[in-house]
Write a structure and sequence with these properties.
alpha+beta; Phosphorylase Kinase, domain 1; Transferase(Phosphotransferase), domain 1; 3 domains; six-stranded antiparallel β-sheet; four-stranded antiparallel β-sheet; 9 helices; 25% helix; protein serine/threonine kinase activity
Length: 406
């Protein structure tokens, strides 16, 4: 499929590989390399497309953001154009971070502005909570531990995102949280912070001072906290604040979903209405989060598990393969930062044959008698088996043979 980028095209869908739109005759490639495949988002100021970069041998996916306001010549459209231009600058400055999409290109074609950026494969947190109704404690810890360092990074570069919300947080297949959509971001220089600007952001998650055009670094932390209580309860933040009492009541809406008191205190400090009582920096929030020392009982559904396939082989005494079977197992990848990813395999219950048969050559006395060992499903800290020490998933399963069961 090849999608026409002309906004008023009546039949934008074209066969794959087409160079010109069969309906309106417009070029289907941007800069002779970027081909739109389908629309993945749209609003009053343009569209976002899933695309492919045909200039690279691997034909990787990318994202095309097209700026084309429906209302031409208005002050709002002019402000939107400025923000679109600023997004390119922010991404160019920040996009080398592994949890921020990289800017690939920024240009004008056919009197329309375009951003080409890295495609992040995964689901945003709004999509995830819609499917499972609410996040649990483990998932919120995972979110905060992933995203607070990203906010610390962008704030250290004098950028305020101004639109932290579940829709702008994408969880990859590896479990990493990626922050997207810097269209509302602004530089936080001393002069800029002193001025009252335009109130920008998503109303459900916006901090009180940001709603008055005075966004600061702590405004992003407020939006993150508001996102957390939405994800924990599955309820709009509007319904989690008691106007009469002037206080948050999100804990009352946790249904069979308890969280640790220490984590609750971190969230409460993120969503303080008064700026002076809120966390002043992401570093402060990280320090408190690291001191909560949670004891979490993990279940497979609490983690973004992925599947992999492996072979289990049985060998004869001479080393000849006499049996080979294909199996599946689940694993979890935790991004520890600095390019380090820890991979762990989920260990269900089963039976393990331990020891050596009496006729096996070279066996030691302590390896007998050969016997079955029943192992219950691992829970809590025993749920995850680390693949460290040079082992990968395939070699680990091969060594344990029937330790894993379908």
């Amino acid at each position: 499929m090849s999608y026409c980028l002309k906004p008023d095209c009546q039949k934008p869908q074209n066969p794959s590989g087409t160079s010109f739109c069969l309906d309106c005759g417009s070029k289907l490639l941007l800069r002779s390399r970027y081909r739109a495949l389908k629309v993945i988002g749209q609003g009053g100021f343009g569209k976002t497309f899933l695309a492919v970069d045909e200039d690279k041998p691997s034909k990787p996916h990318c994202v095309i953001k097209q700026f084309y306001p429906q209302a031409q010549g208005t002050n709002t459209a002019q402000k939107a154009a400025e923000l679109f231009e600023q997004e390119a600058i922010r991404l160019d400055d920040l996009g080398k971070h592994p949890q921020i999409p990289e800017l690939l290109a920024h240009f004008t074609q056919d009197n329309r502005q375009y951003l080409i950026q890295e495609y992040i494969e995964g689901q945003n947190l709004a999509q995830i909570v819609e499917k499972q109704l609410h996040f649990n404690e483990a998932q919120i810890y995972h979110l905060l531990n992933n995203l607070l360092p990203v906010l610390d990074f962008i704030h250290a570069n004098n950028v305020i995102h101004r639109d932290i919300k579940p829709e702008n947080l994408i969880q990859t297949k590896e479990g990493k949280i990626v922050l997207v959509d810097f269209g509302a971001a602004k530089y936080a220089t001393g002069t800029a912070l002193a001025k009252t600007g335009t109130a920008i952001g998503t109303i459900l998650y916006i901090a009180p001072e940001q709603a008055r055009g005075k966004a600061i670094f702590a405004s992003d932390l407020y939006s993150l906290g508001a996102s957390c209580i939405h994800l924990l309860t599955g309820i709009s933040p509007f319904e989690l604040f008691d106007i009469g009492e002037n206080t948050w009541v999100w804990r009352h809406r946790l249904i069979n979903n308890p969280i640790d008191d220490a984590l609750g205190r971190v969230i409460d400090k993120l969503i303080e209405n008064a700026v002076n009582y809120r966390y002043q920096s992401a570093k402060d929030a990280i320090a408190d989060l690291n001191h909560t020392d949670p004891t979490i009982s993990f279940t497979p559904s609490a983690l973004p598990l992925q599947s992999f396939e492996y072979d289990v082989v049985s060998l004869s005494i001479t080393g000849r393969i006499i049996d080979q079977k294909r199996h599946k197992a689940e694993f979890f990848a935790e991004d520890l930062g600095s390019g380090i990813v820890l991979e762990m395999v989920f260990v269900p219950g089963g039976t393990l044959m331990m020891g050596s048969p009496e006729r096996e050559e070279g066996h030691a006395d302590h390896e007998r008698p050969q016997h079955n060992v029943n192992i219950a499903q691992y829970s809590s800290d025993k749920l995850l088996l680390s693949l460290d020490d040079g082992l990968n998933a395939t070699s680990l399963v091969s060594q344990t043979n029937n330790f894993f069961f379908n």
